[in-house]
Specification:
By secondary structure, this protein is an alpha/beta fold. The protein has four domains: 7-281, Aldolase class I (TIM Barrel, Alpha-Beta Barrel), CATH 3.20.20; 299-367, no CATH class; 372-390 and 462-526, Double Stranded RNA Binding Domain (2-Layer Sandwich); 398-455, Double Stranded RNA Binding Domain, CATH 3.30.160. It contains 17 helices and 16 strands. It has helices at 26-39, 53-62, 89-96, 110-115, 121-137, 149-155, 157-170, 186-199, 216-225, 247-257, 271-281, 303-311, 338-347, 357-371, 380-390, 440-452, 504-525; strands at residues 7-10, 43-47, 71-77, 101-107, 141-147, 174-179, 205-209, 230-233, 299-300, 329-330, 399-410, 415-426, 429-437, 463-472, 481-489, 494-501. The strands form four sheets. An eight-stranded parallel β-barrel has the order 1-2-3-4-5-6-7-8, surrounded by nine helices. A hairpin with an 8-residue loop joins strand 14 and strand 15. The longest helix has 22 residues, at 504-525. The protein is elongated.
């Protein structure tokens, strides 16, 4: 079978927005559309005109978009039963959206025909053909989504195929087979899509799959293997229930492993940044475990793995991380060996002697610290400072003389206030400051910044991005060890620091001090 080019149809803005916790503003939808176009997808499904005010506004604003590669798509359904297509208000809204492409879905499963939309099998066939033909006559490219196709085919193959033939007669440019419930297995999709391809001649087919069986990507690739020339999905696999087929996995698999031609293949190295951008626009935390684009996708923790990857990268990496915009990472933990530390040191800009006795001693110290609750996998800044102190003998810039935190509930004013005082020594000079804030960690951070700013004004640029607290060995209850992880930025770089203690304030203090010390060190290296 000839490998025809595969078209990428992105439905992040429509199907993806139906995911729990996902809500795009109009501005975010417009920015995502521009990013998807720059990346090189073929179709961008913008939403369902008329279904909500946000989509109405989006399609109005989208008329000003200057898309270079992608075609904007309006999504809707076939005409309603027993209503002429010309009089159907939803069909009118699809035309008024003024998009070059319209995707409409129709029923493939007789169960839905008779029990959901309450019409006859014959009327459903006519609804599909009428709607596709009318929209085609209005100058639209029409993609037909055969909803619940695989379930419908397993129930009554002849009827499911007849619904496709109706869309084909109407002039659809693609007949997309939908696993709407996400319940099909790989061999089922491969078999059914192959049979459809043999039956439906002269009109390309596509696949639209969901991830309810954790097979969204696998069944989508099976559909392509069977002859589909279009694949639908969302960036990061967002979508209703368990999500849609994940384009950030489908695209690299098609390009790098199936050698299929895609318009976006030349931009594959931008895939991770696209993934992060969509997460940001949807106000979601990035999935660090995501294949290809996740932070942990090419992370090596065990000493044997790290050592092998250092010698021959592909010994433990299935692709070159850079091809999708990612990178190899070495995680330092109590599982690490000398080779892991050497690789990590190189990664964070330190030149160490592998034979030095200090490095061996550092490994022992690292294991002891992790036993006490410290964890450095996401705290490169703390690790670098620790390496500098332990291996290179670099002293701390900040000597703690003492701190105090008080929290008061001002009932009459209806507020809780925290006050922190910090006494530190920098060089030969002592600094004693007090700060007030809503939370105790914020007050502590403010007091520390005030104390350091006269000597190190660069600390004023630091902003805390994230503050995570984890209770370790919770069987000890309120006496448990607490680990605090802080993400900081100065507007250019980002870094992570860690602290651990049976006192949350003490743990937070350690992470805060490491954060400012790392910034000071970065400034000294400029």
């Amino acid at each position: 079978m000839a490998n025809n080019p595969v078209k990428i149809y992105d439905t992040t803005l429509r199907d993806g927005s139906q995911g729990e916790g996902i809500s795009f503003t109009v501005a975010a939808k417009l920015r995502i559309a521009e990013k998807l176009d720059q990346f090189g997808v073929d179709y961008i499904e913008g939403g369902w005109p008329g279904s909500n005010p946000r989509d109405v506004s989006f399609f109005e604003e989208a008329k000003q978009l200057n898309l270079k590669q992608a075609k904007l798509v309006a999504f809707g359904s076939t005409r309603r039963a027993n209503l002429s297509v010309e009089d159907d208000p939803q069909i009118k809204l699809l035309i008024e959206a003024e998009t070059p492409v319209v995707t409409i879905f129709g029923k493939s499963w007789l169960l839905h025909v008779t029990e959901i939309i309450k019409t006859t099998a014959e009327e459903n066939i006519q609804m599909i053909e009428d709607s596709v033909r009318y929209l085609t006559e209005q100058g639209k490219e029409v993609i037909y989504d055969a909803e619940h196709f695989f379930d419908g085919y397993k129930d009554n193959a002849d009827y499911a195929l007849n619904t496709l033939k109706a869309a084909q007669r109407g002039g659809a440019s693609n007949l997309t087979l939908c696993d709407t419930n996400g319940g099909c297995l790989v061999h089922e999709v491969l078999k059914i899509a192959s049979q459809v391809k043999e039956t439906i001649i002269n009109t390309p087919i596509g696949v639209h799959c969901h991830n309810d069986s954790d097979l969204g990507v696998a069944v989508s690739l099976a559909g392509i293997e069977a002859g589909a020339e279009l694949v639908q999905g969302t960036i990061n696999g967002i979508g209703e229930r368990n999500g849609n087929a994940n384009l950030t996995s489908i695209i690299p698999n098609l390009t790098l492993k199936m050698n299929r031609e895609l318009h976006c293949s030349n931009n594959l190295s931008k895939l991770r940044s696209l993934s992060l951008f969509v997460d940001e626009m949807s106000n979601q935390s990035s999935n660090t475990k995501a294949p290809f684009v996740g932070l942990s996708a090419f992370a090596h923790k065990g000493g044997v793995h790290a050592d092998a990857a250092a010698k021959v990268k592909h010994s433990y990496e299935h692709i070159e991380p850079e091809s999708v915009g990612n990178k190899t990472r070495v995680l330092v933990s109590d599982m690490s060996g000398r080779s892991s530390i050497m690789m990590k040191a190189k990664e964070i800009g330190l030149d160490l002697d592998a034979r030095s006795p200090e490095l061996k001693a550092f490994l022992g110290e690292l294991k002891e610290l992790e036993f006490k609750g410290y964890e450095y996998e996401a705290a490169d800044a703390s690790l670098k400072l620790l390496l500098n102190r332990y291996v290179k003998g670099k002293e701390r810039e900040i000597e703690l003389l003492g701190y105090r935190v008080m929290v008061s509930d001002q009932v009459s004013l209806g507020r809780i206030v925290s006050e922190a005082s910090v006494k530190i020594k920098v060089g030969d000079k002592e600094h004693h400051t007090v700060a007030e804030a809503r939370g105790p960690v914020d007050a502590l951070n403010e007091a520390l910044t005030k104390a350091l700013a006269p000597v190190f004004p660069e600390v004023l640029d630091i902003r805390l991005l994230d503050f995570k607290v984890r209770i370790l060995e919770n069987k000890h209850g309120t006496d448990a060890i607490i680990r605090v992880h802080i993400e900081s930025t100065d507007g250019e770089a980002m870094w992570g620091t860690v602290g651990a203690s049976d006192n949350i304030i003490a743990a937070a203090w350690e992470a805060l001090v490491d954060s400012v010390e790392y910034k000071i060190e970065m400034n000294q290296l400029k």
